[in-house]
Design goal:
By secondary structure, the protein is α/β, with parallel strands linked by helices. The protein has a single domain, classed as FAD/NAD(P)-binding domain (3-Layer(bba) Sandwich). It is 32% helix and 25% strand. The strands form five sheets. Strands 4, 5, 6, 7, 15, 16, 17, 18 and 19 form a nine-stranded mixed beta sheet that branches. The chain has a six-stranded mixed beta sheet with strand order 9-2-1-13-21-20. β16 and β17 form a beta hairpin. α1 packs parallel to α7 and α4 packs across α10. The radius of gyration is 21 Å and the shape is globular. The chain binds flavin-adenine dinucleotide.
Length: 419
C-alpha cells in the first residue's frame, strides 16, 4: 500500500485525504497549526459555484481594480509595494486579463465546479451532515448597468450549457419572500449549491480519523530526504515520515514550502473578511452575491454570513476596519431592513485566498520531483473545487495521467539556481 503524506489540513488537504484513503492509500496529513476552527477553510462563504466560470484574471478587472485602489472601502485592493514576488505575479496577471484566457478557462472551470458539486453529493452519504443544499446562487444587482452586465454573463452561461435565469425585482422576491430588497433584479444560477464550511471541515476530520488517516497537528516541517524518485521522507518536529508520494496542499503557504525545495511559484494572498449574524433581522434562503459590491451572503441554518473583499497586501494578521465597513455599508444599501447596529459586537474573521496569476489552480505533478503533487491556488474557489481536486490528485497518485496544460503547476514555476 502506498504511503501518502499530505501537507495542510485545509479543505483541499482533507478532501485529498478522503479520496486517497478511499482509493486504498495509507494517508498522513501534516498540519503546523493546532486543531482549530479558524483557518481560511472555516470562515469562508461555503459556496459551490459552477456560476463562477470567469477566472479572476479577466478583461475589465484591471481598470475596475485601478478605480477601486483609491477607495479604502472597495472590494478589491492591491497594496502597491516594491516586492519582486508581487511584481512577477502582477506581470503574469496583467498578461492573462484577456478574452482569450477567459475563453480557455471558462469551460474548464465550469466542468470542474459541476463535477465537484456532484462529488459533494456523494460525500454527503459518507460524512456527518455538513449543510449541503442546492438552492442555487443569486447575483443581485442594484443598478441597471450591473444587471445588464450580469445578464450578459447569464447568456455566456447558457452558451456553455448551464441554466441561468435573469430576474426582475419581483422575480427575486419570489425566491426571497421575507427580504426587503433595494435592487433592480438579479440572475439565479440553479446549479450552484452551498455548505456550512465549518461543519464540512469537522465532518471530514471525523471521517478521516475514523478511517485510519493520521492527522498530525502542531507539526513543523524541518527538511526533506530526497532520492532518485523525488522526496522519500519529510523531516518534521515529530521525526521523519517516509512517503511514496507527497501532496503539497498548504494554501498560500505552499509558496514558502516550495522555496525549500528550490522552486519559485507566483502566488499572492487575497485576504477576505466575513461576519456571522446569528440572529439576522431578516432571514435569507438562497445564497447571494451583491454584484456591484462583491459581497457574498450565505444562509447557514438560521444564521447568515456576510463576506467579501480581495485585499492583495501580503499576509498581515490584522483586520482592516475600512474594508469591513465597506462590506457592512453594501449590505445596508441592498437590504434596507438591515442597520449598522445589527453588526455591532460581531467578530470579524479573515482568511487568505491563494491566488494564481491566471485565475486557475495549480494542480498536478512537479516537473522537478516526480512523486510530488501540488494542489493549491484555488483563490475564491477552494471550497467549491476541494472534492474534484482531491479526486484528481488521487488519480495522479494512482496512474500516469497526461499533463493538464491549463492546471499544470509548472506553468509559471522557476527553479532556483543551486538546487
Ligand atoms: C471571505 C472569503 C470567502 C470565501 N468564500 C468561498 C466560497 O464561498 N467558496 C469557495 O469555494 N471558496 C471560498 N473562499 C476561498 C476558500 O476559503 C479557499 O480557497 C480555501 O479555503 C483554500 O483552501 P486550502 O486547503 O487550499 O488552504 P487553507 O485552508 O489555507 O489550508 C492550508 C493549510 O496548510 C497549513 N500549512 C501551511 N503551511 C504548512 C506547513 N509548512 N506545514 C504544515 N502545514 C502547513 C495551514 O496551516 C493551513 O491549515 C473564500 C475565502 C475567503 C477569504
Amino acid at each position: 500500500m502506498k504511503q501518502v503524506v499530505i501537507i495542510g489540513a485545509g479543505v483541499v488537504g482533507l478532501c485529498t485525504a478522503y479520496f486517497a484513503r478511499n482509493a486504498g492509500f495509507e494517508v498522513t496529513v501534516l498540519e503546523r497549526q493546532q486543531a482549530s476552527y479558524e483557518g481560511t477553510s472555516f470562515g469562508n462563504a461555503g459556496m459551490i459555484v459552477p456560476s463562477h466560470f470567469v477566472p479572476l484574471a479577466a478583461p475589465g478587472i484591471l481598470s475596475q481594480g485601478f478605480r477601486w485602489m483609491f477607495d479604502k472601502e472597495s472590494p478589491f485592493y492591491v497594496k502597491p509595494r516594491l516586492d519582486g514576488d508581487l511584481l512577477a505575479w502582477a506581470y503574469q496577471f496583467w498578461r492573462h486579463c484577456n478574452q482569450a484566457q477567459v475563453d480557455k478557462a471558462a469551460p474548464r472551470l465550469l466542468e470542474l465546479n459541476l463535477q465537484s458539486r456532484d462529488l459533494y453529493k456523494q460525500m454527503a452519504k459518507d460524512l456527518k451532515p455538513f449543510g449541503l443544499e442546492q438552492k442555487g446562487l443569486l447575483m443581485l444587482c442594484n443598478t441597471d448597468y450591473g444587471l445588464e452586465k450580469e445578464a450578459r454573463l447569464a447568456e455566456t452561461s447558457k452558451k456553455l450549457g448551464m441554466r441561468a435565469d435573469v430576474l426582475d425585482k419581483a422575480g427575486v422576491g419570489e425566491l426571497e419572500p421575507d427580504l426587503d430588497l433595494n435592487i433592480v433584479g438579479g440572475v439565479h444560477y440553479p446549479e450552484d449549491a452551498h455548505v456550512n464550511p465549518k461543519a464540512l471541515m469537522l465532518a471530514l476530520r471525523d471521517w478521516l480519523t475514523a478511517n485510519a488517516v493520521k492527522i498530525l497537528w502542531n507539526t513543523e516541517i524541518s527538511g526533506w530526504r530526497k532520492d532518485e524518485k523525488g522526496i522519500c521522507a519529510v523531516k518534521t518536529s515529530r521525526g521523519e515520515l517516509p512517503c511514496d508520494a507527497l501532496v503539497i496542499a498548504s494554501g498560500i503557504w505552499s509558496v514558502e514550502l516550495l522555496k525549500t525545495l528550490g522552486l519559485k511559484l507566483p502566488m499572492q494572498a487575497g485576504k477576505g473578511y466575513s461576519m456571522l449574524l446569528k440572529e439576522p433581522v431578516q432571514a435569507f434562503t438562497t445564497p447571494a452575491i451583491l454584484s456591484e459590491a462583491k459581497v457574498a451572503i450565505s444562509p447557514l441554518g438560521s444564521s447568515v454570513r456576510f463576506g467579501g473583499t480581495m485585499e492583495i497586501a501580503g499576509l498581515k494578521e490584522q483586520v482592516n476596519p475600512s474594508r469591513v465597513e465597506g462590506i457592512m455599508k453594501s449590505v445596508l444599501k441592498y437590504f434596507p431592513a438591515y442597520q449598522k447596529q445589527d453588526f455591532e459586537g460581531t467578530s470579524v474573521w479573515y482568511g487568505f485566498r491563494p491566488c494564481t496569476p491566471d485565475g486557475l489552480p495549480y494542480l498536478g505533478k512537479l516537473a522537478k520531483y516526480d512523486n510530488v503533487v501540488l494542489a493549491t491556488g484555488h483563490a475564491m474557489l477552494g471550497l467549491s473545487l476541494g472534492p474534484v481536486t482531491g479526486k484528481h490528485v488521487t488519480e495522479l497518485l494512482s496512474y500516469e495521467q497526461p499533463v493538464d496544460a491549463l492546471l499544470d503547476p509548472n506553468r509559471f514555476m522557476q527553479v532556483y539556481s543551486g538546487f
